[in-house]
Structures are given as C-alpha cells and as structure tokens.
Amino acid sequence: MNSNVHAQHFNFKDKLHKQFIAAAYLPEPNQPQDVININLKNGTFEINPFGNKLKPFNRNDFLTYQLPFQYDPMAKAPIFEAYLNRVLPDKKLQSILAEYLGYVFIRTSTLKLEKTLLLYGSGANGKSVFYEIVRSLLGEQNTSEFSLQSLTNENGYYRAMIANKLVNYASEINGKLEASIFKQLVSGEPVEARLPYGRPFVVREYAKFIFNCNELPRDVEQTNAYFRRFLIVPFEQTIPEKEQDKQLAQKIIKNELSGVFNWVLEGLERLLKQKQFTESEAVIKAREKYEKESDTVKLFLEDYNYAPHSVHSIQLKRLYSEYRTFCTDDGFIPVNKTNFQKRLENCKVVIEKRNIGKVVFVSNDSEYKQYT
What we know:
The chain is α/β, with parallel strands linked by helices. Helix content is 38%, strand content 16%.
C-alpha cells in the first residue's frame, strides 16, 4: 500500500497551506532588527548598516517569497523613468513611490510608519501602468488585490489571505470600511482572521497596502488617527489617447524590472535614513482636501451657508431633511440622524432640546463664516 497521502481537492490543499503559513508558530529569523533581506532569483540581497551585499540563499532567513528576476546592480530603467516623468513630474512624489515599495520589505518592528499608499486621480493618468509594474516586480504570488472594504469586513476571510504577502494592491477603494480594523491593519498590528468554516486565528505578518482610486472613501471616521494613515499621491496628468502606449507596462516588465528594483532600493535606503516618507506639499494638500470633503455634514453647512448663531435656531428635523436632500442631489450617502447631530456639534453648533423637539442654533444670513 502506498503510504503517501495527497490532497485530491486542490482548493482545500491551497486553503490548508495558507492556514498553516498564517497561523503556525514558526521560528523567528535570528538576525538584527536593522538587517533587511530580499530574495531574488540569483540570491538574497542583504541591507545592513555596514553595507549591502548579494549573498547565497539561506533557509535560516525564513523568507517565503522570491522576486521573479535577478539582482543586477548596473541595471537601468530608462523607459520606466520616462514614464514616471510624464505621469508624475513632481520628483518628491516619485521619491514617495520608491520609498513605499521599499517599505514593503521592512518589518513593522524595524520601522512603523502606519501608512497606506493611495494613487489618486481620474482615468488615463498612468495609475494602471504602475499597478501592473508593481504586481510583476513583486511577483503575483507574493501580492493580493482585495478591496479595503473586504479586508475590514468583520468575518475576517480576506485578512487570512494577505498573510505573508508583500503587498495588497487593489485597483479601487470605493465603499464603506470599518475604521477600527483599517487602523489596526495599516499599523501592522496582529489582527484576527479566519478561513471559511475555520476557527479564528491571529495574523502577525501580512501585506502593506496600496490602492488606486478615482474617488476617496466618504462618510468616514472624522479623526486624525484615521486621516494620518493615508499617504495620498495625486496623479493629475491626463495622457491624451494618441500618446498612450497600451504595451508600456509590458515593455518595462519584460526589460527593466532589475532597473526598477534598483530605483526601489534607493527609496528603501532613503526611508531607512529619514525614518519617514519624503515630505511633499502635494501630499499634505491632498490629505487636507480629503479630510474636508469626506465630511458631508460640513460640506452641507458650507453649501447652504449655515454658520453657528447665538440666537437664531432651526428644528433639527428640518435641518436634517435639508441635509438629506443635499446628499441626494450631490450623490453622497447621508449619515444617520445621530451622527448628523454629532457632526454638527463637532462644527461648534449648539443643539438644545425644546418643547417642539431639538433645535439647532445656526443661521445662513450674511454673517456666515467658514468652518474650521
């Protein structure tokens, strides 16, 4: 009798392997926190404070991935550089992209920056080319592409699938997300997950997060703890159709991955030195704009010229009805009445309970002032 046992159901076999990798207590690599190892086809590239080197593979590094190309210190990427200069002329924004891809290889215990990267802008601006390049650079088996909404779902199924991945890179970010789980994930903290029909377990090593988006999430938690986790890189160059090269990503993937990797290494080393992402006025402004526009109640007050008032008041019921009309007309999802009241109070609006119900002390007369 043959003593070998084989899994005949490949879906079950795949899930079993992922459950083991995510939940098993494997030995920790015995190496200093400031040493970073990256597996490539021709060896392991080691980055440490005393110098970088390509070394032979070593099982004691416990690396479960391999990038699908060879390390070549002399490799260049002229097509990739021309692409970046066309779609993202701001050199600081280019630096941030390189730094974040380098961040993918840094353990949270070594450098905890608590950021998710958003490539933000309308279509025909080069985001999809960057997506294809990154997926090929890191290896599709080392990446996942689940939405932020799926990853923050309470059932935890999708969180189980990002265990030991390098990056989760999804093409959109629309929909409602669970803020507490989102903050936990972006911070790289241990997070609960489970596979279908399986018991919950804790994932400790999992992907960093990149998203392409035409729109940013609306109706979100209005706290600094939420907004500071976004690193928003605006893609504002629209490429005319006659200038678009549909094979651009494949040309770079076929010929320049080693050169693109050297660009990433520069970003990684810069990040280790700075201990933070390169400061950019464009990124700061993008976050401030997102913070303002994500609060539909504040937008409503500004649009209707409502400002806090010491005497004049309006019934909360009537004001909420106006707010819902505003959201319907502008394509927003309105918050419920309880959250509406909380958002008003955050805008320093006084609400009192009277015989006719709750009233809101606001006025839209000429004394209107900007909310801050």
